[in-house]
Amino acid sequence: MAGLVQTSNNKELTVILGIWTMLELKDVTRRFGVNTAVDAVSLSIPEGQMVGVIGRSGAGKSTLLRMINRLTPTSSGEIRFKGKTVSGLRGNELRNWHRDCAMIFQQFNLVPRLDVLTNVLLGRLNHRSTVLNILNIFTVEERASALAALERLGIAQTALQMAGTLSGGQQQRVAIARALMQSPSMVLADEPIASLDPLNAQIVMDALRDINQREGITVVTNLHTLDTARAYCERVIGMAGGKVVFDGSPDELTTDAVRMIYGASGDGTEISESITSTSISAERPVVPAAPKSNGQLQPTLSVKPAAAEVALPA
Fold first, then answer.
1. Which is nearest to 62 in space by CA: 95, 34, 21, 103?
2. Is 304 a residue whose pLDDT tops 60?
3. Does residue 153 lie within any of the structural domains?
4. Which residues lie closer than 8 Å to 259 by C-beta, 6 or more apart?
5. 7: pLDDT strictly greater than 50
6. pLDDT (tens digit, 9 = 90+) per residue, 190-216?
7. What's the confidence (pLDDT) of residue 300?
8. What are 137-164's pLDDT values in tens digits?
């Protein structure tokens, strides 16, 4: 259901439209003491959708994504992925969920003193044995895949640089490459462009849209800016006070919807949409997401293993 209402789980409509509900949240709530950060949110997100979550600071956007990824536990409610409850996972099952649900952070979360290539290879940790991880041994194929991910994002030339020497935009692209190495079923991006200039913001959003369209991977991203949500997302979810107050297409994001999400300024005047702008100019998505054929990402660059052996440290 679109518009200025909280979404409901309409399974009959899902069946009629032939849409597979990949992620389902039912009355998900998170409390911190007496404060409620996320208040009884219910959502259904189908496979292959690119979703933007917008709202003011403190609206509950980041907490919502962290609960989906299980970095923050729920106080109540249920989160299901492909019919399986993930809100109560423990141990190895939780580790597998962190692998399948890749997270991209505003502050990049790279290891500054490691080179870029090694940071990207860390995305494979939950696919490998503990022994290989302790010994820090990566195969030629894994190194080649990491290089291909960097090439896809236009930063292969930084592979042997220390991650801490890169610009903010480059570091965020390294973080996206690391997420690609996880071979995820879903990507969550928590304010991925909040600390970037407009040009780098566009590069990062283009990369997320490319992942969504080329691999058919579901992408859910928190955004402060209306223009970015309109340009890149096929569905926009607006939050205010921990609740979902809007759920619809970018075309349905009317003045009334913006008022519901962002409210008014201190003197009662309307919030100008221009203050939420990053000056990003991009064409609206028109290519439907393609289904994943075998669960594996297909890099656009073919890297010869022999070259990887010669150019890269053991």
1. 103
2. no
3. yes
4. 270, 271
5. no
6. 999 998 999 999 999 999 999 999 999
7. 42
8. 788 999 999 999 999 999 999 999 999 9
Residues in the chain: 314
pLDDT at 269 (0 to 100): 55
Of 168, 295, 280, 152, give the one whose Cα is nearest residue 227. Answer: 280
Helix (H, G, I), strand (E, B) or coil at 122: helix
Question: Is the pTM value of this prediction over 0.70?
Answer: yes
Into how many domains does the chain fold? 1
Give the domain CATH number at 250.
3.40.50.300
> Which of 222, 238, 216, 225 minimizes the C-alpha distance to 285?
216
To the nearest whole number, what is the mean pLDDT of the chain? 82
Question: Does residue 304 sit within a domain?
Answer: yes
Query: What residues make up the domain containing 218?
Result: 47-63+90-311
Q: How far apart are CA 28 and CA 237, in angstroms?
A: 15
Using left for φ > 0, alpha for ψ between -120 and 50, and beta otherwise, residue 54 falls in: beta
Q: What letter does residue 1 receive in the DSSP assignment?
A: -
Reduced to 3 states (helix: H, G, I; strand: E, B; else coil), residue 241 is coil
Q: Where are the beta strands (DSSP E) in the chain?
A: 21-32, 35-46, 50-54, 76-81, 84-85, 101-104, 186-189, 218-223, 235-240, 243-248
**Confidence (pLDDT) at 139:** 86
- E strand or H helix at 264: none
According to the model, what pLDDT value does residue 3 have? 55
d(CA 299, CA 180): 9
Q: Does residue 179 lie in a domain region?
A: yes
Question: Residue 309's pLDDT band (boundaries 50, 70, 90)?
Answer: very low
Does residue 42 sit within a domain? no
